[in-house]
Amino acid sequence: MKEAKKKKKKSETSIGVSRNGSISTVGVLSVYLINGLFLAVGFWVARNRFLVDLVSDPSLTLFLLWSIEFPVVVIIYSFLRKDPEKCSCSKAVGRSILGLISGAFMNALGAIALGAPIGAQYLPKTIHWSLLMSVFTFVPATVVFGASLTDWHRVFASMKPSGNIEHMILVPAYGAIIGGWFGAWPMPLDWERPWQEWPICVCYGAIGGYIVGQIVSLCLMLFLRKHKSLKVA
Amino acid sequence: MSTEMTCTRLTILTVAGIFLQIIGLSIFVFGFFPVKPTLSGVSGSESYRHPLCDPAPNKNESEIHPEKLRLLYQESSGISSRYDRLILMVIDGLPGEFVLGKDGQPPWKVWKESMPYTQSLLASGDAIGYHAKAAPPTVTMPRLKAMVSGAIGGFLDVAFNFNTQALLDDNLLGQFLRIGWKMVMLGDETWIKLFPGLFMRHDGVSSFFVKDTVQVDKNVSRHLPNELNNDDWNLLILHYLGLDHVGHTGGRNSPLMASKLKEMDDIVRTMHLKAMVDRSHDQGRTLLIVVSDHGMTENGNHGGSSYEETDSLMLFIGLSSNISDYAGATNNLAFQVDLTPTLALLFGVPIPKNNVGVLVPGTLDYLRDFEQLRALELNSWQLLRLMQAQLPNSLFEGFSCKCFVDGVCEGFGTDISECSGDKEKQLICLFRNAAVLHGIWKSKKLTESSAAEDFNRALDAYNAFLKTASEWLASKTTEKPVFLLGLGVSAMILSCVVCATLFLSLFKEVYNEPKDQVCSLNYLLNLEEVFILAVLLILVISMGSSSMVEEEHYIWHFMVSTFYLLLLFKTVKSFSFSKGLNSLGEYRIGSIFLLLISGRLLRGWHQGGVNWTYFPDISKWLEQAGGSYVKWIQLISSFLVIGLGLFTLFRTGSNRKSVRIQAFVFSICGFLILLHAWRYKGDMFGTDNGATVTAKVIYLLLSISAGGGALVLPWSMLKKDKSFLAVAGDCLYLIGSAYVLCWCLLQLLLQQPINSGPILLLLIQILASSCLSSKDVHVNECVEIAALYYMGMAGHFALGNSNTLATIDVAGAFIGISSHSTILSGILMFMITYASPLLFLLSLVMYIGEKLRNHSHLAHSDTDLGQLLKLKLGLPCLVPLCINSILLTAYTVVLLLMRNHLFVWSVFSPKYLYVCATTVCTYVGVCIVAVTVAYALSVTTFLRSKTQQLVVDS
């Protein structure tokens, strides 16, 4: 996550742009519902079409999950992107793919630093896991912010999001990361369950954290709005 | 802060807290780990009488002539003894799997083919083998004690393993001596230390030179032909150490293993043919028993409780039991302690008092029915006596002496009751059943011919009782004196509170000073501080789970890497893009990436723990790739360590003579270490004199340059153009880097060659973190010190240590020691095991120097020495002490709660020993830091006041 900004700033330094209109809480809820729905669709396809699940074939399942979720996320969030006049749809898609790959790279590095196993048999699993994580964390942000480093820094590092869109990007992304971090906990235990393998329980943790993050961000938005209206009154 | 705390008061309180902790810890340790047997005294002829009957007037049996005593025992036991002589061959570290196979499978082909004669004996039914399960700790001395006394020894025996003391409890050898046996001992001198003056002839060999795998066994075997021709002994003990040494140097699959097994097989053949088959001499019948004291892991270590380590061998040769097939002869299970009652009954001596073993089934098959039942009865009586000492008398009410002797009790009848209820009642009931059935069999034997069924019922009843009683007694050894434990724990909790209070008050004082820049009024707990506290909490919680204790290294590595990532996050957060990039930021990011990469490499170096040791790791990969890679790693690491160390020494810019001398000495040491590694580690089994001398020279040089540097440097650092604090800071930085470099070089010498890589990585981590702390990342000082402590612990596991005793590197503990010295090799072993935590504690000197240098512009120069010491030295000393005392106290409570856990002896107790050793390590490290810093600062203050005096005078 954090490495992202550092890498980016070397390549390009664009200046933040004026903010687009915001989104209502109901809109956020529907976005989250669509996200969750397609995540469920991914699991369903894996289970019923390919007859695999995370335990039996993590690579394939993760591939299905992220490849179904990715277009959905790109389409939804490109409606919310900043400066829609300057940035065409195709450009948004292009940079989302770039964001997917670089985000996956960051996530993989982070996971390896925290002790993810390195080895030929783990490589596809790590790649697919990090792509899924990237869909959760990086892709929405790249679609919305583009390469605006100041926005990235303000939202992710300083954690000062403004408006619903930034909230709805920030909180689930951190939720997924923290969830994945906690998901790694059962791995060293000697319960001898198949799901203790890398990256299965980390995936569960990340997805769980993502969903919790969505709920938290919804609550936050409701709370903040009430707060604001109180202040105004 | 309302009450100002002076430096003296702080010191006194801290020392008092530490003393309280030490006292509490020692009280707890002696309370928790059983050191005393339950019954005192020695078994005599009373063991042939029923325990519930009135004891006969105690004749002083020690005055009876041995021969008479032997006859008395034989008469009262009622079991005929068929053997006159016993050969006990102990093969140190031989896993039962090598001879008997595993899970009903025959042993591996290599092993089987290496021992043709033993295998043929097993196949023909002349020998019967048992997988004898040894109790942890699987180290030699406690296991020998268990074999001859039948008692499960106290856990602290491990601590005394290097300081063998005479075994004073009732044991088999003492019993044999009382009936006038003559005993000969050849082999491991542990026996001689356990039984001083007991052997008629002995030739002890030392287990000191672990690398000697050949001569150590030749020294035993050279006496064998003579002894086998002699007929003046009754017991011949042979203890071969070579196989254990082969394991320690090369693991189970060492190329030397096959030839060592062959050698052992030849010895078995020689003894079997000469002493047992060939009856030309009138020596009486001989029984040959081959046992091993413990097994070994895949790497050849032992000490823990894995199947590989506890699976020892018990092989009876010449027992003429009626087993003829190979599977029947190899697929038997027993416990190591079972050897004691079996031998006692086979040779007609009383079973030692504290024995918890039971007769090995199948060893007495040659006896007649009544003798077999009598043997079981004697074993049961002995266990019942032991139980009597631990059970309230009320349980035995209603059982009169007559009741058991006649098998008819008032109110009970002769029927067999189903045994249920709580464990104690169940035991009594099982015993009663057995006694009653025995009585029935006895009364019917004369009248009825079909007594076979009754016999079998009695046999089964006895076996049921023996098994349950043995298990119950074994678990009872963990009984604890509650008062002592409570006292110890409360003392430790009190000291923990003292430490925490001191820390908090000092913390408040340091950060509430308006002068200090680090603090601001809107100071709040930030992410790193919360995380550091959370790590402590997580560690305490994880201690409660046995698998987390086994896999503790995952927690440390995971937490430390997460901490690095948090640092990275913080650094990124502090970027401001309006100003563009600055080199400072690059520097910090670079250091953090260095920390992350080296941390990941360290984590991958050794796959530690218990459950996942078979996973690939860097060390396995390097060793498979060939020895030359390891050598290259060693060479490169040594050069880089020296280079980095010299760079750090000269980084202060001070080019004084003393620094140059130090640098020169370190270079020479590095060269000598390379020489030592290149010339002497090549031949694994050499006990070269040159190696010892070189190592001694290295020790001398390193201690002179580190100690001398610390003594001399503060006197020579005076500079007029610099502020006093900057000078002191420079000086401490130099001393600290000399300490760190010296310690790294020492570890390069002592550690296994494969560990030289991690040593380099640890040094890099220290330098990177000192770089970070000097670059002002706005991280709280306590957080930095705590993080250093955590990194030290992560490095501890990265060097291949774990929470089992098996990973302690014994081979390194003898480098540079020419004669056996328990204390010296113990210290070396401690230094090897705690290399990384001590390294990070020593680096605190460097850290303090760095801080002093950076903050020398702050207005501290007018404060007095005490205040300065308190502010600069207080936290670096208190933070490690606090963390350690919290962990120690928490783990003590956990151990107390887990005292009835299944893994209390195999997982929790070894971990407790490690926790105690970590405590010692923290004390030592903090003590060195405190003394050095206090010395350097007071010398500098003294010099400054003197120069000021001079200025004033002139």
UniProtKB/TrEMBL annotation, chain A:
Keywords from the UniProt entry: Endoplasmic reticulum, GPI-anchor biosynthesis, Membrane, Transmembrane, Transmembrane helix
A single cellular component GO annotation: endoplasmic reticulum membrane
Membrane topology designation: Multi-pass membrane protein
Localization: Endoplasmic reticulum membrane
InterPro entries documented for this protein: GPI_biosynthesis_protein_Pig-F (IPR009580)
Domain of life: Eukaryota
Chief subcellular location: endoplasmic reticulum
Name of this chain's protein: Phosphatidylinositol-glycan biosynthesis class F protein
Lineage of source species: Eukaryota, Viridiplantae, Streptophyta, Embryophyta, Tracheophyta
UniProtKB/TrEMBL annotation, chain B:
Signal peptide annotation: none
Localization (cell): Endoplasmic reticulum membrane
Known pathway: Glycolipid biosynthesis; glycosylphosphatidylinositol-anchor biosynthesis
TM spans (from-to): 12-33, 483-507, 519-542, 554-572, 584-602, 629-649, 661-678, 698-718, 730-750, 756-774, 786-817, 823-848, 873-897, 912-937
Single GO MF annotation: CP2 mannose-ethanolamine phosphotransferase activity
Keyword Cell inner membrane set for record: no
Keywords: Endoplasmic reticulum, Glycoprotein, GPI-anchor biosynthesis, Membrane, Transferase, Transmembrane, Transmembrane helix
Membrane topology type: Multi-pass membrane protein
SUPFAM superfamilies (UniProt xref): Alkaline phosphatase-like
Keyword Disulfide bond belongs to the record: no
GO biological process terms held by the UniProt record: GPI anchor biosynthetic process
Annotated ranges, domain GPI ethanolamine phosphate transferase 2 C-terminal: 528-937
Any Gene Ontology CC annotation: endoplasmic reticulum membrane
Entry similarity comment: Belongs to the PIGG/PIGN/PIGO family. PIGG subfamily.
PANTHER family attached to this UniProt entry: GPI ETHANOLAMINE PHOSPHATE TRANSFERASE 2 (PTHR23072:SF0), PHOSPHATIDYLINOSITOL GLYCAN-RELATED (PTHR23072)
Protein name: GPI ethanolamine phosphate transferase 2 C-terminal domain-containing protein
